[in-house]
From TrEMBL:
Its EC number is 3.6.1.9. This is dTTP/UTP pyrophosphatase. Belongs to the Maf family. YhdE subfamily. It catalyses: UTP + H2O = UMP + diphosphate + H(+); dTTP + H2O = dTMP + diphosphate + H(+). InterPro entries: ITPase-like_fam (IPR029001), Maf-like (IPR003697). It comes from the Bacteria.
C-alpha cells in the first residue's frame, strides 16, 4: 500500500515490536522514547488505566516534539479484572502464567495519537486469548528462557510463548503491541494517512 502522510510521525515507544509493526505501513517515522513511570497511574478500570498510560507516553514525547504527530501505546493483560503487568521476578512470571493456564484473558492495547495541532485521540483494542492447560514444568521451562520479563502478562505470543496459546479472538498484532488495522482506520479518518486514489 502506498500511504502518504501530511504530518511528521513519531512513535513514542522503545518496543522493537511496535517499531516493526509500524514499519509494515511503509511510511516514514522516527522514534522518540518516553520516560513515563506507569505505576504512577491510578484509575478505576483497566480500560481507563491503559488509555491513561498511552496518553502519558504520547504527551511526554509531544512536549519535546511540538508540531509533529505522536503515536503512543500501552499493552496490558487483564485476567479476572486484574491487570497482570510485566513480571519483575521468576516467581511473579510463574504466578502470572499459572493464573492464565487453561483460562481466557484479555489483551488490551490503548493507542494515543497527538496531532500536530495538539488534539488528542485515543482508542482501545481488545483481543481475547485462551491459554492451553500448561504443566508447572512447561511454565518453569518457559520462564527460564527469560522471554516473559519485558512482556505484559509474562508471555510473548510471537516468541516461544506461542506454545502456551490455544486460540485467540481478535487482532493478533494487538497482542504483540500495536493494532495496526484499527490504527490505519483511525489515521485515515483523521486524514493523517492518505490513499493514493
Ligand atoms: C501479551 C504480549 C505482550 N507483549 C509486549 C507488548 C509490549 O511491548 C509489552 C507491554 O509493555 P508496554 O509498557 O505496553 O510497552 P513497552 O514497555 O514494551 O514499550 P514502550 O512503553 O516504550 O512503548 O508487552 C508482547 O510482545 N507479546 C505478547 O504476547
Amino acid at each position: 500500500m502506498n500511504f502518504t502522510t501530511n504530518e511528521q510521525l513519531i512513535l513514542a515507544s522503545a518496543s522493537p515490536r511496535r517499531k516493526e509493526l509500524l514499519q509494515m505501513l511503509n511510511i516514514p517515522f522516527t522514534i522518540v522514547t518516553s520516560d513515563v513511570v506507569e505505576t504512577s497511574v491510578t484509575v478505576d478500570t483497566a480500560r481507563e488505566y491503559v488509555t491513561e498510560v498511552a496518553l502519558l507516553k504520547a504527551r511526554d514525547v509531544a512536549k519535546r516534539c511540538q508540531g509533529k504527530c505522536i503515536i503512543g501505546a500501552d499493552t496490558i493483560v487483564v485476567f479476572n479484572n486484574q491487570i497482570l503487568h510485566k513480571p519483575v521476578s521468576e516467581e511473579e512470571a510463574i504466578e502470572h502464567l499459572t493464573k492464565l493456564a487453561g483460562n481466557r484473558h484479555e489483551v488490551m492495547t490503548a493507542v494515543a495519537l497527538i496531532l500536530a495541532d495538539g488534539t488528542e485521540h485515543t482508542f482501545v483494542e481488545v483481543t481475547s486469548v485462551l491459554f492451553k492447560e500448561i504443566s508447572p514444568q512447561l511454565i518453569k521451562a518457559y520462564v527460564q528462557t527469560g522471554d516473559p520479563f519485558d512482556k505484559a502478562g509474562g508471555y510473548g505470543i510471537q516468541t516461544s510463548g506461542a506454545v502456551l496459546v490455544d486460540r485467540i479472538e481478535g487482532d493478533y498484532n494487538n497482542v504483540v503491541g500495536l493494532p495496526i488495522a484499527t490504527l490505519v482506520q483511525k489515521m485515515l479518518t483523521l486524514q493523517l494517512l492518505k490513499l493514493p486514489f
